[in-house]
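Hey team,

Filing this mostly as a record. A colleague (T.K.) asked me to run one chain through the structure pipeline before their review meeting, and I want the input and output archived in the tracker in case anyone asks later how it was produced. No errors, nothing strange. Just documentation.

Input sequence:
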Amino acid sequence: MSFFEGTGQSAGIGNAISLIDAVYRWCECVKGQQVVDRALKAIGDSLGSEALAISRVRIGAGATTRILAYDAMPANAPMPRLQRSFAVSILSDFLASARPGTVWLRSAVEVEADPALDLFHSRRNMRELAIVPLATEQSHSDFLEIHFANPLTPGQHAVLNSLAMTLSEAWRKRSEGIFVSSVLSKEDKDDKPIYGTDLLGHRNPARLSRAEFRICLLLTRGVTLSSICDELSIARSTLRTHLRNIYAKTATENLPDLLYLLLRKPAESLVAPKRKIA
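Output structure:
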């Protein structure tokens, strides 16, 4: 039962419990103690939504989007399941400036029509999309996207506004690397890992340059950034440039995310063929 269904005292208590459970599961999720799917399902159940997603949109040229989606629609159903983000379509020029914890409704903003969103909502008989900015950092912004079958009532909007602030604040305090680790875990379950071989394997799936490869190899050995500069005789600014290139090639956003990707498999499988680190 969603928070907005039912009448009477017993229904009100049940609705409140559903909402509390959603907040609890979200807080456990951002601490890495519960899988994202369960948290999104709990939020969806409490709000009356069957399709939700956490999306990460890289800001600037060559913007990319990664998504963690929950969709109650069975995988073998003839209707489309939620597989992409629509945050860019709704927020447009406000993508990087939207205040975390606010609620942006598709019906309340003036944006150009997105054919993909129109088709998805049409096929699924949905009529509203709410975007909640969770956090904005230098390189990317994170969003919670919630699709609804019907327009929100004033009461629904008020509850969603209050919930959005709580979810955003919890997300701001999330464990480092939680988003990327969840993406990788989901891709592994779907048998669609980002790379078919180790990132530092001999096939070099991310197409790292020689310098980038050496930096990643040193990171897996626990070498600090300052020591990497000394080891490779490069300036700190040069190292920052290499790291930006590595983030782009590996679809990571920062050093904790990169380290998780490098170390997510047993150490012995990450060791590259012995070579001199020059």
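Quick notes for T.K.: Residues 8-30 form the longest helix (23 residues). Confidence is low (pLDDT under 50) at residues 191-196, 266-278.
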